[in-house]
Amino acid sequence: MRITLGVEWSQVGPRLRVRDDTSNTSQLVDLIGTTWNYRCTGVRVCPGHHATRTDGSREFVDCQAQVTKRTRCERCSTVEAVFASNLHRAHKLGRTYVDHRLAEHLDQPHRLYIAGFADGSIKVGTTAGVSGGVRLAEQAAWVASYVLLAPDGYVVRDVEDAITERLAVAQAVSAHQKRAGMLAPKPTDEVAALVASARTRVHQLIDSEPGLAPRCETLADDWYFGGIDTPPWRGLAAYPNRLDSGAHEFTVDDMCGRFASLVRDGTPDRYVADLGELTGVEIQVGEHDPDPVEVQASLF
Questions:
Q1: CA-to-CA dists, residue 184 to 148, 188, 189, 234, 257, angstroms
Q2: Can you name the residues that pair with 166 across neighbouring β-strands?
Q3: Do 248 and 260 meet the contact criterion of CB atoms below 8 Å apart?
Q4: 181 sits in which H/E element
Q5: Closest of 276, 284, 244, 280 to residue 260, by C-alpha
Q6: φ/ψ bin of 56: left (φ > 0), alpha (ψ from -120 to 50), beta (otherwise)
Q7: CA distances from 218 to 70, 106, 116, 201, 221 (A)
Q8: Does residue 159 carry a pLDDT above 90?
Q9: pLDDT tens-digit profile of 19-61?
Q10: If you average pLDDT over residues 198-224, what whole number do you get?
Q11: Mean pLDDT along residues 95-100
Q12: How far apart are CA 181 and CA 175, in angstroms?
C-alpha cells in the first residue's frame, strides 16, 4: 500500500510525496511521464505538515494518524494554521512579536508578483528570494510578472495589502477557477495584457505614495508557464471521476500547479485532473481494471 501526500514543486519540477505503508518516512517521486494504475482502499491518513527550521527554511514532517472527515489530524492542522496566521499577520504585529524562526524567513528579500490564470483571473502575491519561479509554478499561474523587490517580508506584505485594498486585486484564486481556465483558456495575449495592466496600476500606486514601499525596487520581470499552447494543454476535458475513490489508470503528460494533464491508454482524449484530491489517500498500486470514464458531450 502507498499513502499519497500531495504534489510538491521545487527547482527540479513537480513531484508527488508518497509513503509506503511499511515505512515511517515519505519520499518524492516523479510525476511527468509516469503511469499510475491504482485502487483506492478507502483509508485516509493525515498528510503531515511543514515545520520551520531555526534558519527559517521549511521541512516536511510525516504523520501516521488516520483521519476521517478532516484533511489533517488536529495537531498537524494546528501547526499549519498557526504558521499561516503568523506569516500573514507578521507585518502588522512587528518584529518584536514574531517567532525567531519565522523572522529568519521574513528577513530575507521578497518579491511581489501579479499572477494571471488561464481563465483570466489575476491575483497579487509574494515570494521569498530574488530568483526562480517555483512559487508561480506551484500556484498554476499561466502568465505573471514580478513587480517589486522588497528588502524583507514585512514591507512586501504591507504593499500587498495596499494593492488589495486600493486596487481591488485579490490575493487568492480558487482551484475551481484555475481548472475551469485550463478547460477553456483565454488567449495568452489577453491574460498577459491583464497582468501588464495590473502591474502598471501597482507601479502608479507606489509612485503616488513614496512611503508605501520604502527601500523597494520596482520590477517588470515577466514569467510564462512553459506548457502554454503545447499539446498537453490543448482540447482538455475534465476528468470525470474523483481520484480519491475507485480504480484508475492514466499517464501524467504534464503538470500545472497541482493539476495534471492526463492521457489514458487506447483513447486520444486528454483530461485535466486535480491531484490535490489524492492528498492523504491510501492506494493499492498494481494491475487493476480502471473504472469507466464517461465524459459529457457538453464538455467538448
A1: 31, 12, 15, 9, 17
A2: none
A3: no
A4: helix 175-183
A5: 276
A6: left
A7: 42, 19, 19, 12, 10
A8: yes
A9: 998 888 999 999 999 999 999 999 999 999 998 887 778 899 9
A10: 96
A11: 76
A12: 10
Q: Identify the pLDDT of residue 298.
A: 40
Q: Which residues are CB-neighbours of 246 under 8 A, at least 6 positions away? A: 39, 40, 291
Instruction: Find residue 50's DSSP bridge partners.
Output: 60
Cell numbers 499539446: residue: 231
Domain residue spans of the chain: 1-107+238-300, 108-224
Distance separating alpha carbons of residues 194 and 114, to the nearest angstrom: 10
The conformation of residue 235, written as its DSSP 8-state character, comes to: S
Q: Strands, DSSP E only, in the chain?
A: 2-10, 13-20, 27-30, 35-44, 49-52, 58-61, 110-116, 122-128, 143-150, 217-224, 237-238, 247-256, 259-263, 270-274, 281-285
Q: How many CB atoms lie within 10 A of CB 184?
A: 10
What is the DSSP code string of 49-117?
EEEE-TTS-EEEE----B-SSSSS-HHHHHHHHHHHHHHHHHHHH-GGGS-HHHHHHHTS-EEEEEEE-
Q: What is the pTM of this model?
A: 0.92
Provide the pLDDT confidence category of residue 296 given band limits of 50, 70 and 90: low
* SS3 category, 278: helix
Cα separation, 247 vs 239, in Å, equals 13
Q: Is the per-residue pLDDT at 98 higher than 70?
A: yes
